[in-house]
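User: Sorry, folds how?
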Amino acid sequence: MCMRMCMFKNVLWKFALLCVPVRFLMVYIAMRVGRWSVGGGRGGGLYFKAMGVVGLMIGIGFMYLHFSGMRPLSVAGDKAWWNRMVHSVFYLAFGVRALMGDQDAYLFLLGDVVYGIGSFVKHHVANGDFQKLLR
């Protein structure tokens, strides 16, 4: 029992202090670079397109992991339970829209963060992890 609870605490801390802040940082950077590129910032369009290419690469990577079944563990070390296809669609949509010059493309990344947080909470509530944590 303690083993599972200790693992959940570890996953919770990594998710809350590493995963979510890094993803929010990506949203913020995409928002700022998108506004800068549209506002005529020098070189901003090139940076935004580069972010679009990175978004496409991440989306394709998630899709590859989904279809290949490789890397069944998450970065936190627990079993990867989330829907990689949904995450890949968010990143692919961001990449395409950023390459098209849509300054609001960051909203796809924001949607990914919100979906990720919601999925994390739903999954761990369904498993009873939060209830066990409060005991």
Observations:
- The chain has a mean pLDDT of 85.
- Residues 22-134 form one domain.
